[in-house]
Amino acid sequence: MPLNPAIAAVTDRIRARSATSRAAYLDRIARAAEAGPARAHLACGNQAHAYAAMAEDKDALAAGRAPNIGVVTAYNDMLSAHQPYERYPEVIRAAARAVGATAQVAGGVPAMCDGVTQGQTGMELSLFSRDVIALAAGVALSHNTYDAAIYLGVCDKIVPGLIIAAATFGHVPAVFLPAGPMTSGLPNDEKSKIRQQFATGEIGREELMKAEMASYHGPGTCTFYGTANTNQMLMEFMGLHLPGSSFVNPNTPLREALTVAGVERAAAITALGNDFRPAGHVLDEKAFVNGLVGLMATGGSTNLVLHLPAMARAAGIVLDLEDFAAISDVVPLMAKVYPNGLADVNHFHAAGGLGFMIGELLSAGLLHDDVVTIAGDGLSRYAAEPKLKDGALVWEDGPATTLNDRILRPVAAAFQPTGGLKQLAGNLGRGVMKASAVAPERLVIEAPARIFEDQEQVKAAFRAGEFTSDTVVVVRFQGPQANGMPELHSLTPVLAVLQDRGLRVALVTDGRMSGASGKVPSAIHVSPEAAVGGPLARLQDGDVLRVDAVAGTLSVIGVDLEARPVFAPDLTANRSGIGRELFEAFRRNVGAATDGAAVVV
To answer: Where in this chain does the record put each Dihydroxy-acid/6-phosphogluconate dehydratase C-terminal domain (predicted)?
Structure first.
């Protein structure tokens, strides 16, 4: 099937927009690659320091002829998704030796859990942790002793931060090894119902805690389709995972076999061999377009609207919200995974998963097949699924038909004809909505506004019974310069209760919502943010706002905003406590949400 004209047009527009920066980037990584294997240029003393603790690998490292793989790990055992990584370095070193290579843990990067920090002060460090991760990975790789890099990361900011680092060291091949989702626990819709019951006082904390522990119950990624699992999808669509590896559960024989195969692949694609695949060549314009297609087809996390532009900039590629909108217009929503449906990612994987979806999208001309991946040339390789046959890892053709059409459908019979994200623009700025989880009758909300400066004010108004009519809740001064752009996911149960009471409600904010946010229409990432004098800073209670995800508009009606003063609250409380003091330089220098809200790119 020929490439869809709209996909081709978006790709051409990105390529033209990025021509100068991409050319400079490719020149930079080409010069780095031409210098040859890094260890050849290190002094003997430098090398002795690097190999001193490597025991049986010392001779191979000193000889400099075997590929040396640097491992950048986000392991910690507070994050269930990352706990399985504890054993990975041991497995990686053994797998490397088996193919005549060596491997070293180059460094660790922080990995915070947004599930722990939701509604807490620490959430104000969450988005900035992406840039810290990129910096920490850069420090790890700066030792310049690695012929390839393996990245161990799964969750919200971790994968984007690691991609920024991998692109920056784009002359070095990069392989991402997933850990997989935890097995299914309490169904997500039951968990959501219990949270709403707690919000209204129908149940106590003991019942809530029991439900939460039944949902998040073991090693692996949370099973809803939020940012972490959207990241894993992207790594397949962009060719940085091995095919079919994203959603295999931890601590299983297939998971371990895929980890070993990833190490073997990392050793095979260095400049020392005959199949050199530097990360900067994998991360090209077509790869990012494929990632955007996957985001829309799966109804993925809104957080990637921030992360993908930042990731792309690290590779000299400039993405814009118009690219997201144009792709959303032609890519159908093929999956219903919570919060878009009742299924979790394990059910999605069992129904045919990414292999079925990639095969379908390729057949429909909605993906670029002619791309470079770590597995080889062509995205069609990712329509296959891995299996263990007599103890050996093999890839076989993935399912040609969905195995559960309530979860996963073909392009021709998709759940809806357009993708999961919608750009909104108007006299209040530019933002996005995750429309795939919103009921059609709620895609347009017009109502008087209630203005708040933080989410606790909203919860207090809810407890006081102040929401008795249709309302657009505006939570401003939540952008990256104001307080680091925290997720406001703890508002979801409150707003969902109001909606279930029959009110027409919407949220408008310059902050973020969780990648798992669902049925309440939410215009988020509104830019320019209130802290820099954006239009939200001029709104007043009672202004009539229209949030229209059909027309793609976000506006205040009948108000001359320019004639109003800019409201300027005291934000000094955002500057200290739980580490916020350390991030003042980030808040002062962060870019706009529309550009990825980044500091380092």
So the answer is: 407-597
The DSSP element (H or E) to which 175 belongs, if any, is: strand 174-176
DSSP-derived 3-state class of residue 434: strand
How would you classify the pairing of strands 174-176 and 376-377? unpaired
Q: Residue 109 is encoded by which pair of tokens?
A: 């990067």
Sequence-distant (6+) residues with CB within 8 A of 557 are 446, 543, 544, 545, 546
Q: Is-contact 82 179, C-beta < 8 A?
A: yes
DSSP code string of 113-159: -HHHHTTSGGGGGHHHHHHHHHHHHHHHHTT---SEEEEE--STTHH
| pLDDT at position 567 over 60 | yes
> 421-595 — its CATH code?
3.50.30.80
- Tell me which DSSP letter residue 565 carries: P
The pair phi, psi for residue 86, each rounded to 5°, is -55, -40
Q: Which two tokens stand for residue 151?
A: 């990245």
DSSP state of 343: B
Please, where are the H alpha helices in 240-364? 253-268, 279-282, 285-298, 303-314, 321-330, 345-350, 353-363
Domain range annotation of the chain: 5-183+218-397, 421-595
Q: Model confidence over 88-109: pLDDT tens digits?
A: 999 999 999 999 999 999 999 9
Strand order in the sheet with 102-108: 102-108, 68-73, 148-152, 174-176
Q: Tell me: the pLDDT tens digits for 448-490?
A: 999 999 999 999 999 999 999 999 999 999 999 999 999 998 8
Neighbours of 253 (CB within 10 A): 11
Angle formed at CA 581 by CA 577 and CA 585, multiple of 5 degrees? 150
> 579's torsion region: left (phi>0), alpha (psi -120 to 50) or beta?
left
The share of the chain scoring above pLDDT 90, in percent, equals 81
Taken as a whole, the chain contains a residue count of: 601
Binding residues for [4Fe-4S] cluster: 155, 222
**Binding annotation:** 155, 222
Rg (CA), the chain: 24
Average pLDDT score over the chain = 94
Q: Which residues contact 474 (CB under 8 A, 6 or more apart)?
A: 449, 450, 451, 452, 507, 508, 509, 536, 539, 545
Distance, in Å, from the CA atom of 232 to the CA atom of 253, rounded to the nearest integer, reads: 20
Gap between the Cα atoms of 253 and 340, Å rounded:
31
Residue 73 has pLDDT above 70, yes or no: yes
Positions of E strands within 421-478: 421-426, 429-434, 444-452, 471-475
Question: Which among 339, 535, 330 has a CA at the least distance from the CA of 436?
Answer: 339
In the chain the first and final C-alpha atoms are separated, in Å, by: 37
Cα→Cα distances 78→82, 112, 259, Å: 8, 8, 22
Please, which residues bridge with residue 547 across strands?
Answer: 445, 554
CA-nearest of 483, 490, 502, 482 to 460 is 490
Pull the structure tokens for residue 95: 């797998």
Map residue 357 onto helix, strand or coil.
Answer: helix
- Quote the pLDDT of residue 200: 81
Q: What span, in angstroms and rounded, lies between the C-alpha atoms of 89 and 306? A: 31
